[in-house]
Amino acid sequence: MRILILGAGRVGSSVAENLVSEHNDITLVDLDAALLASLQERLDLRVVAGNCTHISVLEAAGAHDADMLIACTASDEANLVACRVARLIFNVPQRIARIRSQEFYERPEIIGPEGFCIDNLISPERSVTTYLQRLIEFPQALQVVDFADGQVTLALVQVDKRSAMAHQLAGDIAELLPGVKAHILLLFRNDKPIEVSPRTVVEANDELLILVDARHARRALQELRAGARQARRVMIAGGGNIGSRLAHELAAEGYAVKVLEHDLARCEKLSTLLPHKVLVLHGDATDEALLEDENIEGTDVFLALTNDDENNIMSSLLAKRMGARRVMALIGRRSYGELMEGSRIDVAVAPDQATIGELLRHVRRGDVVAVHKLRRGATEAIEAIAHGEPASSKVVGRRVSQIKMPAGAAIGALVRGEQILTPSDDPVLQSGDHVIMLVTRRRVIPAVEALFQVSASFF
């Protein structure tokens, strides 16, 4: 697929890196020629320096041959204009825009065919906020994502010595969780993925990737991670787009929320934007005296959500040392996140990894409805819908055990109506089934997509 990406910032470069590795033809456009040169040295892609709203720049970037345009610059206006130009001048078939302002989501007529001609909107801030909300809701998990319209939950949980699964066989999970539809897809031991069979012994400190009926997710995670209490008191360092959005959502759900913001003008604005029960404080999150005054030792969750990785790391480490029960930090640099997560910082959130799945579901071939990056991008979970008949589909009419999945990919579950089926049930796939798959080798993704593409005879 020929894909034109506008903007080489954190989102754009992350998107490019993910798509290049899947044998797409990528062209990256940005005003910063030095940044483009650096990315071109590292990635197999083409670059064009210039303003992405200019017709001449888009033409030089090959917009006339592009199958898809992804506008993810830091400017909403530039992304909007670029999508309209791409449609009206170059007739690019699919156009995706990163939009920060919530106003555009509330007025679909502005982005539609009569407006800026955008097929799909992505919002990193909204994606990260949702991601953090789920982590607060499930304090036992390192990562939580949903599939099949919220019917299935996939969670990454570290087993401790008090867990019901410690030193047990993976196949015993049904006995340990009676009445719960749950299946262990993969485990990580010493940072290395291990394929799971019913005879695999789960050890303390293993990280389990478990798929569970969403109705029983809380009970299942409590059994896997004993001792984790539900959070009620939350402190957020950073009142930017993500911090303010998260504070608003958490307050609506009944959490006691405090927001620390170092910029006085921003504090004054937050005090008018956020609900009255959210306490907005002016100060530095690395100020030990301030944290002590605000009862950091009684805080259930501390989140460092500023735009500064180093500041987020330091404030999280300080909050943890002073007694915060669980700390999370927004860390853009992947190397920083890998170093810090699992140390004194409980969860390191990479904003690009939280966002990339929202975009990838529009890029994937076949009827793919959800994509989530897991464990800092090492694994990908994909939800696809099976279509067609046995004669036109490679999956419909076949049992799970008969489907030839490429090495590095496996079916984790399928959802049929309100019914959740796992590979141990060995069901026959039907048209309309939602199939949830786990992919640990990125290069096999095209082969996985091909399984869910209906042959021409179907039409």
From TrEMBL:
RCK C-terminal domain boundaries: 142-227, 369-454
Keywords: Ion transport, NAD, Potassium, Potassium transport, Transport
SUPFAM superfamilies in the cross-refs: NAD(P)-binding Rossmann-fold domains (SSF51735), TrkA C-terminal domain-like (SSF116726)
Molecular function in Gene Ontology: potassium ion transmembrane transporter activity
Stretches that traverse the bilayer: none
Domain RCK N-terminal: 1-122, 231-349
An example Gene Ontology CC term for this record: plasma membrane
NCBIfam families associated with the record: PRK09496.1-1, PRK09496.1-2, PRK09496.1-4, PRK09496.3-2
Species assigned in the record: Verticiella sediminum
Pfam family, one: TrkA_C
UniProt-recorded name of the protein: Trk system potassium uptake protein TrkA
